[in-house]
Amino acid sequence: MTTAATPLPGPIDPPTRLLMGPGPINPYPSVLRSMSAPLVGQYDPFMTATMAETQALYRAVWRTDNDATVLVDGTSRAGIEAALVSLIRPGDRVLVPVFGRFGHLLAEIAERALAEVHTIEVPWGQVFPTSVLAEAVARVRPVVVALVQGDTSTTMNQPLDGIGEICARHGAMLYTDATASLCGNPFEADAWGVDAATAGLQKCLGGPSGSSPLTLSERAVEVVRSRPRVEAGIREDDDPLGAEFIRSNYFDLGMILDYWGPRRLNHHTEATSMLYAARECARLHLAEGHEAVLARHRLAGEAMLAGVRALGLETFGDLGHRMHNVLAVHIPSEVPGDAVRTELLEDFGIEIGTSFGPLHGRVWRIGTMGFNARRDAVLTTLAALGAVLARHRPHDGLAAPASEAVAAATAVYDGAGA
Amino acid sequence: MTTAATPLPGPIDPPTRLLMGPGPINPYPSVLRSMSAPLVGQYDPFMTATMAETQALYRAVWRTDNDATVLVDGTSRAGIEAALVSLIRPGDRVLVPVFGRFGHLLAEIAERALAEVHTIEVPWGQVFPTSVLAEAVARVRPVVVALVQGDTSTTMNQPLDGIGEICARHGAMLYTDATASLCGNPFEADAWGVDAATAGLQKCLGGPSGSSPLTLSERAVEVVRSRPRVEAGIREDDDPLGAEFIRSNYFDLGMILDYWGPRRLNHHTEATSMLYAARECARLHLAEGHEAVLARHRLAGEAMLAGVRALGLETFGDLGHRMHNVLAVHIPSEVPGDAVRTELLEDFGIEIGTSFGPLHGRVWRIGTMGFNARRDAVLTTLAALGAVLARHRPHDGLAAPASEAVAAATAVYDGAGA
Question: How many CB pairs under 8 A join A and B?
Answer without folding.
Answer: 330
